[in-house]
Amino acid sequence: QSSVLGFWNTFTTKAKWEWLRWIRSTNQPETRKKRIQVAISKMEQGSRRPCCFDSSRCSVMEVSKSGVLLSE
To answer: How buried is residue 43: exposed, middle or buried, by Cβ count under 10 Å (0-12/13-18/19+)?
Structure first.
């Protein structure tokens, strides 16, 4: 997973935001765990973003403020 972390560190803020939003967009803890595993697998295959995800608002405090993506 260290290679995934290195790959993650090359992502833009928006790409990180999309992954975090996709993982956190479910209320079920088991679904979140599954999405984390899927995200790791996709990143190991070179995916830079999750597919088919509505990223119109962000609630992740580390990368947004009031739903607006922070600048890089």
So the answer is: buried
Alpha helices in the chain (DSSP H): 2-8, 13-24, 29-44
Q: Which are the contacts of 23, defined by CB distance < 8 A and separation ≥ 6? A: 32, 35, 36, 39
**How many Å apart are CA 57 and CA 41, to the nearest integer?**
25
This prediction has a pTM of: 0.69
Q: How far apart are CA 56 and CA 41, in angstroms?
A: 25
pLDDT per residue of the chain (72 residues) written in tens, 0 to 9: 579 999 999 999 888 988 988 888 888 999 999 999 999 999 999 999 887 655 555 555 565 666 566 664
